[in-house]
Amino acid sequence: MVKYGLDYTRCRWILPLLLGIGVIFGIIALAGRGWLESQTLPYMHRASLWESCRRPEQGGDWSCESLMNYAWGRAAAATYLVGFLLLVICFALAIIAFAIDTLRFNFIRGIGGLLFVAAVFSIMGLVIYPVKFSTEIELTGINMFSWAYGFGWTTAIMEICLGFFFCCLPNYEDQILGNVKPTYFYSSP
């Protein structure tokens, strides 16, 4: 990407595209019911960020209770949601930043800093949830934190990695804008 510059049409939208994928993963984590699931039959427990459901027997009905009745449930949901909203704001700012013909590199560095703040909030929510869930809610059988919880961690890792990219990109401003003369390693005899 640095070799051809951000004005190179195929490389210009890679970072906003990756932010968009992070937003999609965040939506999946927020809406998914697979934060915690029973691992063995009969499947007796499943939970999302918002509620915990259990079934007393194989053919019975699921009975659900809201995790918003617990202070830690509200804290986990609020911190993860704040991290997700900051990610959406960074996505919108990245589209604006890369749509302008002349890149504002300090603006891009600010997006990177905001991504680190989003990652901190997301990780706080992702740590509060399993620690307090496993101590406050009675778990029977073998349970595992499942696919939607994994999407939440994937979103947090993408926020950290993209934060580094956005913060380090202004260091290559001259190469990106084509202001550096090429260096030739050939010397004539």
From TrEMBL:
Keyword terms, alphabetized: Apoptosis, Cell adhesion, Cell junction, Cell membrane, Cytoplasm, Membrane, Transmembrane, Transmembrane helix
Recorded topology in the membrane: Multi-pass membrane protein
Pfam families to which the protein is assigned, alphabetical: PMP22_Claudin
GO terms of biological process kind: apoptotic process; cell-cell adhesion
Compartment(s) where it occurs, according to its Swiss-Prot or TrEMBL record: Cell junction, Desmosome; Cell membrane; Cytoplasm
GO-annotated cellular components: cytoplasm; desmosome; plasma membrane
Family to which this protein belongs: Belongs to the TMEM47 family.
Family annotation (PANTHER family): P53 APOPTOSIS EFFECTOR RELATED TO PMP22 A, P53-INDUCED PROTEIN RELATED
Name the record gives this protein: p53 apoptosis effector related to PMP-22
